[in-house]
Design brief:
With about 240 residues, this protein is mainly alpha-helical. The protein has 13 helices and no strands. About 55% of the residues lie in helices and about 0% in strands. Bound molecules: iron/sulfur cluster.
């Protein structure tokens, strides 16, 4: 794992994916990113901050104004309602529009507080803790999960290939704390650029030699030859000839 992390760090330079230092901003940023591409959610977040620069502006805004004034890129009703619910819950929980108090909690307490907020699951809570509170967490998003499974680091504990909450804990436990930030951000970069869900470009992958490519073969018909070990290729050719 250390070798893989070092190679990825050299290639992707621990790029932070524009995540925010303020934990409440980070929550809003992640909300904007749900089911959207990077270009679209960056535009949505900037548009939200331009229309409502202060958290107080968001607290006072009506949901219909959030829908009208923010360029959400789709799902505007759902996202505007989520923002309002989140802001309301932060005021109710902390008595102020700030998550600064989280800095004084230990990791477990901090995660529990965040999980109690509407729309916040384990991945989101751990993103906020990693990016904004500098905790040594390993959020497992779809890229991290898929690549870890293809590398053969972990299997799903369920009947399918999905990542359960238990799997998130298992994978986080496997990743040494000092690697968590770097490995998370660089697996996201690799997943976006090369190791995509449907068509991983294994021939261009910097960690090809470490990868068992479990589950990747059927996803990468276009690069099937690159995914197949040489002796298997020979066998396939002789089968064709016989
Ligand atoms: S070798 Fe292929 S399947 Fe393995 S991590 Fe790289 S792109 Fe993904």
């Amino acid at each position: 794992m250390y070798e893989v992390a070092a190679i990825l760090s050299k290639r992707y330079r621990d790029f932070n994916h524009y995540n925010r230092k303020n934990p409440l901003d980070e929550l809003l940023f992640i909300l904007c990113s749900v089911k959207r591409t990077e270009k679209v959610y960056l535009r949505a977040y900037r548009s939200l901050k331009k229309a409502f620069p202060r958290f107080e502006d968001l607290a006072e805004a009506k949901t219909k104004d959030l829908i009208k004034k923010v360029e959400w890129g789709g799902l505007q009703n759902q996202k505007a309602s989520s923002v309002k619910a989140l802001i309301g819950a932060v005021i109710d929980t902390f008595g102020q529009l700030s998550l600064a108090k989280l800095k004084h909690l230990d990791d477990q307490e901090c995660e529990e507080f965040l999980l109690a907020l509407p729309g916040v699951g384990k991945k989101v809570a751990r993103c906020v803790m990693l990016y904004s509170l500098e905790r040594k967490m390993f959020p497992v998003d779809s890229h991290c999960w898929q690549i870890a499974a293809r590398l053969g680091w972990i299997n799903s504990s369920g009947n399918n290939r999905n990542c359960s909450v238990r799997d998130m804990d298992r994978l986080q436990e496997m990743v040494p704390p000092d690697l968590r930030y770097s490995l998370h951000v660089n697996l996201v970069s690799l997943g976006r650029e090369i190791c995509t869900a449907r068509k991983p470009r294994c021939r261009e992958c910097v960690i090809f030699s470490f990868c068992r490519r479990i589950g990747a073969e059927e996803a990468c018909q276009a690069v099937a030859k690159a995914c197949t070990p040489p002796n298997t290729k020979r066998k396939q050719q002789s089968n064709k000839l016989s």
